[in-house]
Design a protein that fits this description.
Elements: H1 2-25, H2 30-33, H3 36-39, E1 42-48, E2 54-62, H4 65-70, E3 82-92, E4 95-96, E5 105-110, E6 116-120, E7 131-132, E8 137-144, H5 147-151, E9 158-160
Parallel strand pairs: 2-3
Antiparallel strand pairs: 1-2, 1-9, 3-8, 4-7, 5-6, 5-8
Length: 167
């Protein structure tokens, strides 16, 4: 009986230690928990390369100024099949940066029809350097660094997603 009593008293302590361990692996930044990556709905997106290969991703589409300003800031891990699609109401020359972004990314700059116009690979975390589209584009997709090379995504690849119009 005495042994059972000790176990039952130590159970709350064990629970507390388990919660502490869980919090240690939980997203470490309050900013990360408020990220559109965690708060917005995931949608399916397909990229079709110029060589005929296709890959499917789950993306969060961000359209508001606040969500676009935060983007993937504070994210410490981006699942390999996830990304963020920055969608704008009209085509324009876009400029991105890596401020407060911990994960190296590849960026795909996309026109109205969903065709990739520029690919930037292996962006530098925390860099304040401007990453520009060079030509007017409608959207930018950010994925894990290295995926462009791995999948063969280059200028001319096509994105299939609801925000792009086919003509």
């Amino acid at each position: 009986m005495k042994h059972i009593s000790i176990i039952s008293r130590s159970l709350p302590t064990a629970t507390i230690f388990a919660l502490i361990a869980l919090l240690a692996v939980w997203p470490s930044s309050e900013g990360q928990l408020r990220s559109p990556l965690y708060l917005n709905e995931l949608e399916t997106m397909v990229v079709r390369t110029t060589e005929g290969f296709s890959a499917q991703f789950k993306v969060v589409t961000v359209t508001t100024d606040a969500d676009q300003a935060q983007g993937l800031m504070y994210i410490r891990h981006l699942p390999i099949d996830r990304g963020m699609l920055f969608s704008y109401s009209r085509s324009q020359v876009l400029s991105m940066w890596m401020k407060n972004t911990h994960v190296p990314l590849d960026m795909w700059f996309i026109d109205d029809q969903g065709r990739i116009q520029k690919v930037v690979t292996h962006t530098v975390p925390h860099s304040l350097d401007s990453i520009k589209s060079d030509t007017p584009v409608r959207a930018v997709i950010e994925v894990n660094a290295g995926l462009s090379t791995l999948l063969g995504v280059t200028k001319g690849a096509v994105i299939e997603h609801r925000v792009f119009q086919r003509q």
